[in-house]
Amino acid sequence: MDLNLTPNITDPDGFYARLIAAHEGLSDEESAALNARLILVLANQIGNAEILEKALAAAQMRKS
Amino acid sequence: MLDDRYSLAFKLYPYERSADQDAAQPVRHPVVVVGGGPIGIATALDLGQQGIPVLVLDDHEGIGMGSRAICFAKRTLEIADRYGCGTPMVEKGVVWNLGKVFHEDRQIYDFNLLPEAGHKYPAFINLQQPYFERFMVERVRELQATGTPIEIRGKNRLDAIEVKDDHVVLDIMTPEGPYRIEADWLIGCDGASSPLRGMLGLDFEGRVFQDSFLIADIRMHNDDFPTERWFWFEPTHGAGASTLLHKQPDDVWRVDFQIGWNVDRKEEMKEANIRRRLDAFLGEGLGYDIVWSSIYTFQCRRMKQFRHGRILFAGDSAHQVSPFGARGANSGIQDVDNLGWKLGLVLKGQAPESLMDSYDVERCFAADENILNSSRSTDFITPKSKISHTFRNAVLQLAEKHAFARPLVNSGRLSLPCVYDNGPLNGEDALPEAPARTRPGAPCPDAPLADGFLLDRLGGDFVLLTVDADAPEHLDVGGIALRRVKLSVNDDTTGALAERYLGGATSAVLLIRPDQHVAARWAAFDESAVRRAVGHACGKE
């Protein structure tokens, strides 16, 4: 299965603003922890191991 | 006593003594506009062309120096076209479509605005504000010559105001001393630091952004930069945390450096220091003259209400945004577009005074949309926390490789006219198969016809637009003459009309407001429905 790397987020500006707002007032540790939890929640939504591996590769800026 | 606060680019309305200064009793005017900037002059053009006498007061004798607003959007040009001065703006302006985004020094992607075809006006032009204003004042002069009741009084400063139930009393200072007039309606177009707002003790709350930007407008000796918008995030030349390069007419380029919050303005404004930044950015040895420079900070804020009885605020005096997205001057012109016809109807006795409340509702809604968009752009360009900066740079890194991240890159969302969804004047939407872009509340998109453009046909009064539908040529609704614009698929040379107004429908009847926003739409003409919608659009219920 392919990782979707074309635009797919509805209302990108709204999502981005919501994401930054979620971190407002958090310490660095708290922000890192929020990000970790968010990644795990999103990974569960994706589920598929092949796609998750490709997502890891994209984030690491390497070829999958 | 009446010293200039700034120097002039064009001296267009020198002080002249008015008969009002020698009148025994204060002379009453139907409409007085405070401030002769782009919004004040547009207000005069709108009302004057409706035959309503309008007096503009300005504490200077012409247009201030400095390019300031440089991006004028399609909707602004369409409105200027209705006032009769859109053509010279486009002829002078620079049209651009291509943008490039850089991170550090690498180009991460480019984009084409790909403007939709079939519009009389381009998506945007770049034009120095003094030209924009001059074309409007020149249009005022043309209209005055044919008897349009517009008057501009230079070096007339509003010093005090007394608010009565149905008028205001204005104390005005001139080089020859003070005098007093009265106005049934007063429009405040006196800018972000509005003295009028101060005199009335009105609020102007919002968010301060802790950053400053240095603008340098330069004329290149060797003009080999393309007509594109280039935006750098974190360029390594270090002259700014972000930098924007944009072309204007006369071989002038706008360079905009983000220079941080704690800066010594006086030191930064020295030519040697500006040149140091420019040389770091452009590379040594490039010849240029500095045409204008300025340091600005900004806030995103608005008044709680734009209407205070017989006093209305428009433009920067009512709302202020960051410059990203060109939503300052453009939204002010849309304020005028909204205000003009409503005040015209009220003054002619064709609509109740309460119609002016809809100006407040619709334009506050628009201001909130503009503030939201420009705040988001600012937050992306100047991240205010470590995590915000981390996300911003992650977006930029991914955008270089993957298209999905590009819609998240936000260096300004260019101004589009507001759709007044759920607006108080909207009538029924009885044409569900038609496109959402022409739903009630939406501004009419232009479309090419066999002999010109649709918006030219709509003009500035109430129109019943019919596409392959029957309707009477004229309909009088409570003194308002409804004019029919009759179109058929045969007029639709490109298919744009059907695409924008019909969608899945085979016929359409649209009630269009004088500001060219859709009020209601149906599949066929129904006289009682149309009468109801016109009444509703005039605030009669």
UniProtKB/TrEMBL annotation, chain A:
According to its UniProt record, what is one Pfam family this protein matches?
Answer: DUF2783
Task: Show the InterPro entries listed in the entry.
Answer: DUF2783
The highest taxon in the source lineage is Bacteria
What protein name applies here?
Answer: DUF2783 domain-containing protein
Automatic annotation (TrEMBL), chain B:
Keyword Flavoprotein listed: yes
Question: Which source organism?
Answer: Gemmobacter lutimaris
- Stored InterPro entries: FAD-bd (IPR002938), FAD/NAD-bd_sf (IPR036188), RIFMO-like (IPR050641)
Task: Name the cofactor(s).
Answer: FAD
What keywords does the record list, in alphabetical order? FAD, Flavoprotein
Report domain FAD-binding positions.
30-368
By what name is this protein known?
FAD-dependent oxidoreductase
Recorded GO terms, molecular function? FAD binding; oxidoreductase activity, acting on paired donors, with incorporation or reduction of molecular oxygen, NAD(P)H as one donor, and incorporation of one atom of oxygen
What NCBIfam families does this protein map onto?
Answer: PRK08132.1
